[in-house]
Amino acid sequence: MADRPALAIVVQRYGPDVTGGSESLARAVAERLAGEYRVTVLTTCARDYVTWRNEWPAGTERVGGVEVQRFLVEEERDLEAFNRFSETLYGRPHRREDELDWLRRQGPYVPALVRELEASRDRFHAVMFFTYLYYPTFWGLKAAPKRSVLVPTTHDEPPLRFEIYREMFDLPRALAFLTAPEEALVRSRFPLQGRPARVAGIGVEMPSSPDVPAFRARHGVTGRYLLYAGRIDAGKGCAEMLDFYARYRAEHAPAPELLLIGNLAMPAPTGPGVRYLGYLSESEKAAALAGADVIVCPSPYESLSIVLLEGFALGVPGLVNARSPVLQDHCRRANGGLYYESADEFVEALRVLLHDEALRRAMAENGRRYVRDDYRWDVVLARYRALIESAASG
User: Fold this and answer.
1) pTM reported for the whole predicted model
2) Which listed site, 130, 320, 321, 385, has its alpha carbon 20 to 30 Å from 156?
């Protein structure tokens, strides 16, 4: 179908074993739009967002029916040095040149990708950029602002206050948000000037009958458990979650186990009742979610939280950090979970979720309905298509 319009997707990492939320969204959208557009993904050779180390070869390959062009990252990142440099800018006077230096240091520094996009931009019907924060999006939008759609996956963090992002948010012809709080945050910071913008979200598909008994047998799980799924990182609120769980366990015996799955970005937790199960396949992750009593989402910074929506789809209530407007909004709109701001609130909310069976049943049905109504792929893709065509028409 050579007459299909050409669509470029720019994202910092890409591949079936790349687990970041915005990267997973980019791949899911790319593969599902490939039947209607000739999709080309422009990305890096990096698999790891901490160092941006090149792990894939540069060049073109097909991944999931999509053409993927990979470009070498020219500088690896020293995260500790980068964090020290960042602290010299956050909340302190600095120059635009300092922000551009910060952007390069943050990476992934891929000038070849930007040059290729600038050279080939006119052959694309539209160009979609995923995640506002990184070098490819900032310089890519500078190189190809016409017919551009930005999916910023924004949350409230210090870099959002940089002037370079005020420049950048002025460039895209259309914007797609994941949640209403994200859209409100962006509109509060940047003038969108009547450009097409809407909450598009992400589609959530879960197996109808995950094999929970097989998951339990494989990992020796015999009783009730709470589940955390995602990058295990202090910056994701995991250290606080572990402290709050220890408090619950000390006050309420017997307590369910706390199981953690995903990639480690902090020392493996070893406290009583806590077990790290490693990185699981998608099918096994679905079984882990389906068997849990509660999905815990402790991050104060989220632009969507796919795992919370997956838990809702499987009828599992959430316990989330109230400091994240997005997580709190999901729980309130769905009436599918509770939220906490302190250790006391965590302990009490968890006690209620574990012991009020009528509430659990109601939240299970509410969560399923919320995902079914707002996060089906046919609904979500129609929103993205409308934004792509709006950007393409100028």
Assistant:
1) 0.81
2) 385
